[in-house]
Amino acid sequence: MILTTTVQIALGMMTLALLLNLWRLMRGPDTSDRILALDTLYINTIALMVLIGIYFDRQAYFEIALILAMMGFVGTAALCKYQLRGDIIE
């Protein structure tokens, strides 16, 4: 009972955080702010997948969270390298 209520409240907060991240991603004043917003969006999506996995008691959501973490790391590293050097592959 308490776990269900807590997870539902956390899901609502994470949804709000995702919407605020999308706002910063669309409105960011420069590219570095948008990259940071995208990285934060990945982190919040990972947290959302973990919360959904706890709520529905399914292991697949945790595996999805791991895949998102790997994709987020590679994507953020590639975008930062592109911003610094103008090329991803040397």
Give a structural overview.
By secondary structure, this protein is an all-alpha fold. It has one domain. The protein has helices at residues 2-27, 31-56, 60-85. Helix 1 packs antiparallel against helix 2 and helix 2 runs antiparallel to helix 3 (60-85). The radius of gyration is 16 Å and the shape is flat.
List the helices and strands and how they pair.
Blueprint: H1 2-27, H2 31-56, H3 60-85
Helix pairs in contact: 1-2, 2-3
State the gist of this model.
It contains three helices and no strands. It has 90 residues and is mainly α.
Features of the shown structure:
single chain; 90 residues; mainly alpha; 3 helices; flat
Averaged pLDDT? 92
Residue ranges: pLDDT <50 for 5 or more in a row? Answer: none
State the secondary-structure class: mainly alpha
Residue share in helices? Answer: over 70%
Beta-strand level of the residues, as a percent range? under 5%
Note the total helix count: 3
What's the count of strands?
0
